[in-house]
Amino acid sequence: MSDATSTVSTVSNANTFLPVVPEWRRTLNRFLGHRGLLMGSIILGLIVVLAILAPWLVPHDPYLQNISQRMIPPVWHEKGSWEHVFGTDKLGRDYLSRLLYGARISLTIGLSAALISGLIGTTLGVLAGYFGGRVDAVISYIITTRLAMPVVLVALAMSALVGGSLQMVIILLGLLLWDRFAVVARSTTQQLRDAEFIASAKVLGASTTYILVRELLPNILSALIVVMTLEMAHAILLEATLSFLGLGVQPPMPSWGLMISEGKAYMFFKPWVIAIPGIALMVLVLAINLVGDGLRDMNAPEGRN
Amino acid sequence: MLVFIFRRLLVAFSVAITVSVVSFMLLHLSGDLAISIAGPESTAEQVEQIRIDFGLDKPMVYQYFDWLWGAVQLDFGRSYYFQDTVMSLISERLPVTLTLGALALGLATVIAIPLGVIAAIKQDTWIDRLALTIAVIGQAMPSFWFALTLIVIFAVNLQWLPAGGNESWQHFVLPAIALGYYAMPAMMRLTRTGMLEVLNSDYIRTARSKGLNESTVIFKHALRNAVIPVVALAAVELGFMLGGSVVIESVFSLKGLGQLAWDAITRNDYPVVQAVVLIIAVFYILLTFLADVINAMLDPRLRVR
Questions:
Q1: DSSP track, B242-279
Q2: Per the structure, how many domains does chain A have?
Q3: Nearest to A153 among B140, B268, B277 (CB)
């Protein structure tokens, strides 16, 4: 695909004597020209760096309890201090430190769950789209069934049975959130199934596995990456919901959903205890969604909405 | 058309059966129900007794068909925890959740469609940007956190509305906002894209060149076509909302189906969990079926497949 387009552009460039702009420069310019994508990437990048460097950045141990330092308000509050920028929770643990460690949990869960569901959904979708017929009918039926199952409810019931933990949440969400991957992989594969490069690979005697993995997959990857961002955001919100309801990541881990749940009893008089982790969740999901929307626009600039 | 409806109905029915099998399997395979029900401090004899009392000693296939036979007669057995049949618990709670869902959907539609239309007419102005910003933020906000924030602002600080319970219509306002805001962004975006597409079409240009005034063009000609996919989406969103009601109802302690499911999950009351999962799935299947039929009635091209 990319070979074909670059050949065309060199030919037209040669004809009109325009200076040759390399492909990556054009991509970079479009990236920088898309405000949402740029903003989302900067925020997301910042959160990722903060999460990775958390052990060296945090001012306090996020698990260290200090009963004499309970419920200290954040620094912008009149009783706040720079010692605890975002204050402390009901056990005297530093809120900023917990927030930074919480970013690690959210990002780990979002990425791992999206990878697992991506693997399941892409496999199903590609097989359905490429083979069509009976395979397609069976897989479409599986997708319809999955869509009919209420995700939040099933996730809650399952984690109540198997017991909540970081690994369980990842596996559960990975097993539940593959539907959009399957739908997108199926329709993009259907569009490419009869393309010439697939036909020529067949003529050259390539095996079906080779065609699917080496010829087809790279061409539907950009669409899948967009779905990946959506499902990452989805998984992060669902983890927060499960942890908020007490059936996800367990205490004392600093999951943002759990922090909101622990702060719930204090929210009437000390609203920052739920405001801070809530805003953190919103900013992270917002950044991921902006990146996803931006990537979709980059893939199909004419289909902007 | 009748053939189309019949075929879709057949698929809908078999999906419902498959969902019932899957939810039954998930709950029975993810742990030993008898041990979960008996609790951690019970003896082996007590567990054995519970196994026999609840019929959990019989083969799984037998248990499933026994349950299914009851389910088609709307008999879901007795609750383990509540001293009542599952069916009477559900028929008591279902109206609350349906009211909440209808209110939330109504609210989302009333906001999303006008906002989408205005954003499309005033494309690329500040109104359009504002509408998109509201949508993007709505998609990033965790629903339980938004619900808590509403409680802090409107129930505690302003004291306009009650924070929880379901005694009067006022009790439904905040939950409906929290649930509706969740469905609004997708509907608004779809209205906007639909309107943009329609407004650039030939028949709108014809309508304008006939000298019709702008409001007739927009409301009688454009909106009618742009709104078709939104109707289908609304049906699907209502299905999602019924699933999402678990979270909202538990935050507002609204005694609906979601709260019942939540109580049942935390108390290992599996007959109730299974029944609620199946009922919500059946609602979703019915709603998507209706959406398909409505779409096919409005657009004959869809009847072919």
A1: HHHHHHHHHHTT--SHHHHHHHHHHTT-HHHHHHHHHH
A2: 1
A3: B277
